[in-house]
Predict the structure.
Amino acid sequence: MLCHMAFLCFRITLNRASWKVRLGCGQLIMAARDLAVQAVSLYKGYQIGDVAIQALKDINLDVLRNEFICLEGPSGSGKTTLLSLIGGLDVPTSGKIRVFGTSLSHCDEDYLAVFRGVYVGFVFQSYNLISTLTTLENIAFPIELAGFKDERINERPTKLLEMVGLSHRANNFPSQLSGGEQQRVAFARALANNPPLILIDEPTANLDAKTANEIITLLGKLKEEGKTIIVASHDERIKQLGDRVLKLHEGSLAE
Ligand SMILES: Nc1ncnc2c1ncn2[C@@H]1O[C@H](COP(=O)(O)OP(=O)(O)OP(=O)(O)O)[C@@H](O)[C@H]1O
Ligand SMILES: [Mg+2]
């Protein structure tokens, strides 16, 4: 009981503090709880033998909940690296990053794995489907990984496959699907645990015009659902869907 009351007092104090900030600074200052992503002076470096590569330099970025961001920049400018840090696939060399209020700057792999399972859906450049699992099993995989054993494993993958228009390919393996079909399965898998944040790397780069259109329609649907979406892409149609376009150049965000 005492514990419960202490927790309540703590929450009320926090809420008051947040409102004080809002009231004191007007509408210019956003309460942290409205932010999906907050990066402060983020750096990511790699060392290969004697060669040091600075993939990201002094990235400062706020992304609102429900915002759709398009990330563009030349090859090697750091787009995939930035998506990896936001999605907790890797940690920064220095700087701070918070995603839905969770600090990811100094986390160990176990913590990051749980974070990813709850908050993030990835669609990678190379789809990353598991070749030995069928389409349906690939989509069910993150649900099983998150520890759910109920009807979600049976029902949700079937519904997601229907959503991406591939119900008839449920029992096929990835190698039996076209690139565009694999891309759509990757989208369905990213949505398996209904994450609030979707990170997508070059979704239309290798697709023909018709399949790219299907993916863009899918992105529009996700936007309407209120997901926070960050897409690395140069596709003009995706840029038009976005609320903002961010430009990376040699690891830095353009002003
Ligand atoms: N694991 C790694 N080890 C060493 N260097 C890396 C690693 N990953 C990325 N890099 C380097 O970091 C820089 C940024 O790479 P990144 O993959 O983020 O670029 P990108 O903008 O996604 O490029 P592309 O458009 O070709 O996909 C590049 O110079 C790349 O060679
Ligand atoms: Mg990339």
Remarks:
- Residues 2-25 form the longest helix (24 residues).
- The chain has two domains: 1-30, 65-91+107-253.
- The first strand starts at residue 35 and ends at 48.
- The chain has eight helices and ten strands.
